[in-house]
Design brief:
613 residues; alpha+beta; six-stranded antiparallel β-sheet; 21 strands
């Protein structure tokens, strides 16, 4: 039960304290003086070179681990010139820019596999080492710095007017180069505060998760105990609820699993000729708090309480003589022992419910904690997707996840997200930079084949969607993604555009040049349905090609365009009705959830939300 709750915490992924996030600089504030006072160029000192060398050394660790367990590790080390890499990682202030450039070219080559995060991390570290080494030793570094500042000033000035992600294109790499070359730190920090806001907000309503947890408890169990040396027999009827609560917390997400019930026990205790019939009413409660933050999922020990009240309902005496006398003695004794008996019963009931609740939840929480690490954190880290910022919080009725994914040469959101619709129980507000940054990390320069796509889709859904099946008479295909923005989403008011950039395509033995594929959809909503309506045809042209311009398509480009139009025309349908969201496992009863909100804004934000069925 708790495992499913924990999984929802992981994937779902408004009151969290975000001081320094939403209070960051606004891009509009840069209007009069886009970047402010510009400091003069200053050559990096020896400590900067030592830091770059140390960073390179750190970046080699994940790659070394990967290659050590890879069958092709020896070949990769040979290709990458691993000994030269290790030499530069130990070089400190004696970094050699010519060797660094040679190594960088190897990591930046068109070799399949180099797009993996472990290789990319080293490539980025090499680029940073090159920047600081050139800045420290090259006489032209000052001129390069001036050009970068001028370009950055122009981009920020334009962005204050346009206020779109496109107008900020190029800002991320410029900030990274300034940071790596140890220049204009105050300018970099100021601009970063405006373009590094969270680009992911997710929230789930308590009522949605409660539907998978809350349940009625109604059970009868035997009573077989010895109290103060007297056997007690009978049965107890427990009726109550197990339910989930969110506990307000701004530092982490906190939920509480609670059990509240009443046990009504009817018992008989016999000692000698006397049998006492009793009724006991015990109020039971147990609770366990579960915590989740960016590092782990864990729980407190179960806390249990019990309160018992008893009353005698009957008295039997097997004796031919002195029954009244015996009755008076028994009644007096029962009255004297009642507080003690109730205390014993209460203590035992408390320990029993604590142990039972702990046993029922321990394995599930342990599994959830393991899944959180192995199925959420580790896969994201391996792919290079783990957010630089990940905060979780809870209010009385919502669990919220706030994240930011943007590497040193990327930007994130620069405005606050739209409000989630008040009727939604599950909400995702994502900025286009999150998708674009993640796709560049994962797909840049990567070659994907038809066979790979089909295998992945079959593993996930069990069957290949009809729109992605290949014609029997068509040869297998492959695409090599562009290194810059391989897959890009652009949001504008009420409209979403998707662009796929391929630097190379194959169809069977035929090879084709670079081509961009783009499609735009309008978001339309009526009383009960949200749908995406394709805006025109799927656009397929070489990079930079202007339809209707002077330049004409080549024969090979025309042939590739025809192949891609046939395939992607089926994938990107003219009308797409958004189906209600099916929920997994124990959450299934709460679904499917109809989509309530689908909003896109020109500042790059998209808000999607689902309401109760």
């Amino acid at each position: 039960m708790l495992r499913h709750v924990a999984l929802v915490f992981v994937i779902s992924f408004s009151s969290v304290s975000i001081l320094g996030i939403c209070g960051a600089a606004d891009i509009a504030d840069f209007g009069k003086q886009p970047i402010g006072k510009v400091p003069p160029f200053k050559k990096p000192n020896e400590n900067a070179l030592l830091e770059a060398s140390t960073d390179l050394s750190e970046s080699l660790r994940p790659l070394n681990k990967l290659l050590s367990r890879s069958a092709s590790g020896v070949d990769w080390r040979s290709y990458l010139d691993w000994s030269a890499l290790e030499t530069q990682a130990r070089a400190g202030k004696k970094l050699d820019v010519s060797v660094l450039l040679k190594l960088y070219r190897r990591f930046n080559a068109d070799e399949n596999g180099l797009e993996m995060y472990q290789f990319v991390t080293v490539r980025r570290a090499l680029a940073a080492a090159i920047e600081v080494t050139v800045a420290a030793n090259n006489d032209q570094a000052s001129e390069t710095y001036t050009k970068r500042i001028k370009k950055l000033n122009g981009l920020i000035k334009n962005a204050t007017k346009e206020k779109t992600p496109k107008s900020l294109d190029g800002v991320g790499p410029l900030l990274a180069r300034l940071l790596e070359s140890r220049q204009a730190s105050e300018i970099v920090t100021r601009i970063r505060s405006a373009v590094d806001r969270p680009n992911l907000f997710m929230s789930v309503d308590e009522s949605l998760l409660s539907s998978a947890v809350n349940r009625v408890v109604d059970r009868v169990s035997p009573v077989n105990e010895v109290v103060l040396g007297t056997p007690v027999r009978g049965s107890g009827h427990t009726s109550g609820m197990v339910f989930l609560d969110f506990i307000p917390s701004s530092r982490q997400a906190v939920t509480q699993l609670s059990f509240q019930a009443t046990n009504l026990a009817n018992t008989r205790s016999t000692k000698g000729p006397v049998t006492v019939c009793s009724e006991g009413v015990t109020e039971l409660s147990a609770r366990k708090r579960i915590y989740i933050n960016d590092e782990r999922l864990w729980a407190d020990q179960t806390v249990a309480m019990a309160s018992t009240k008893t009353r005698m309902t009957g008295l039997g005496i097997k004796s031919r003589f002195g029954k009244n006398f015996i009755r008076r003695i028994v009644m007096k004794k029962v009255s004297e022992l009642k507080p003690k008996i109730e205390a014993i019963s209460q203590r035992r009931a408390q320990e029993r419910v604590r142990q039972e609740f702990e046993a029922e939840t321990a394995n599930a929480i342990s599994e959830a904690s393991r899944d959180y690490e192995q199925k959420f954190r580790q896969p994201l880290k391996v792919r290079g997707w783990y957010p630089e910022l990940l905060r979780m919080s809870t209010t009385n009725d919502k669990l919220t996840v706030i994240g930011r994914k943007a590497l040193r040469d990327q930007i994130a959101a620069f405005t606050n997200p739209p409000e989630a619709d008040s009727d939604t129980v599950l909400s995702v507000r994502v900025h286009e930079t999150l998708v674009n940054n993640a796709s560049e990390i994962t797909l840049a320069g990567r070659t994907i084949t038809q066979e790979f796509v089909e295998e992945q889709l079959k593993e996930r859904d069990g069957e290949l969607p009809e729109s992605l099946t290949s014609d029997p008479d068509q040869p297998p295909w492959s695409i090599t993604f562009a290194k810059r923005k391989p897959v890009e989403i652009n949001a504008t008011n009420g409209r979403i555009k998707l662009t796929v950039r391929g630097s190379r395509y194959t169809s069977g033995d035929r090879e084709f040049p670079a081509m961009d594929i783009s499609v735009a959809y309008r978001i339309e909503k009526d009383a009960n349905t949200i749908r995406l309506v394709r805006d025109g045809e799927v656009q397929i042209y070489p990079p930079g090609f202007i339809p209707g311009g002077d330049k004409k398509l080549s024969v090979s480009e025309t042939s590739l365009r025809r192949i891609l139009q046939k395939r992607f025309g089926r994938v990107f349908k003219e009308n797409v009705t958004v189906d209600p969201l099916e929920l997994p496992d124990q959450l299934a009863a709460a679904g499917p959830l109809p989509m309530e909100q689908f909003e896109a804004r020109k500042d790059g934000w998209m808000a999607i939300g689902w309401r109760k069925k």
